[in-house]
Amino acid sequence: MKIRSSIRAEKEPLVQERFFFCSLVYNEDRIKKGARERFLETFAVCPEGREIMKETRKALGKKTRHSILSNIVYFQKCLYKEFPRMAVYNIVIVVCRSLAPLLTILLPGVVLAVAERGELLAGLAVIVLMGGAMMACDALSQSLSMKSYFYENVFRSILLSDAVLKQTKCLYKYVEYGEEKKITKRAYQCLDNGDYAVTYKMLDYPWELLVNVIAFCFYSTALYTLKPWVVAVLLLFSLANYGISRMRNKWQLALRDKFAQSDREVGYLKRAFRDSGIAKDIRIFAMNDWLMAFRRKVFKERVGLEKKNNRKLFLAECLMMLLSVLRNGLAYGYLLYSCFQGDVAIAAFPVYFGAITGFSGFVTGMAKAYSDLRLANRDAEYFRSHMELPEIREGGQTPEALLRQPARIEFRDVTFSFGEQKVYDHFNLKIGAGEKVALLGINGAGKTTLIKLLCGLYEPDQGQILINGVDISTVPKRALYDLFSVVFQEATIFPYPVGCNLSMKRLKDTDEERAWNVLGRAGLGELFREKGIGMDSYMTKDVFSDGVELSGGQRQRFLLARALYKDGHILILDEPTSALDPIAESQIYQEYVNISGGRTSLFVSHRLASTRFSDRILFLEKGRVIEEGTHEELMAKGGSYAHMFEVQAHYYQSKDAEGQTLKEQCKEPQAVES
Question: Under DSSP, is residue 655 helix (H, G, I), strand (E, B) or coil?
Answer without folding.
Answer: strand
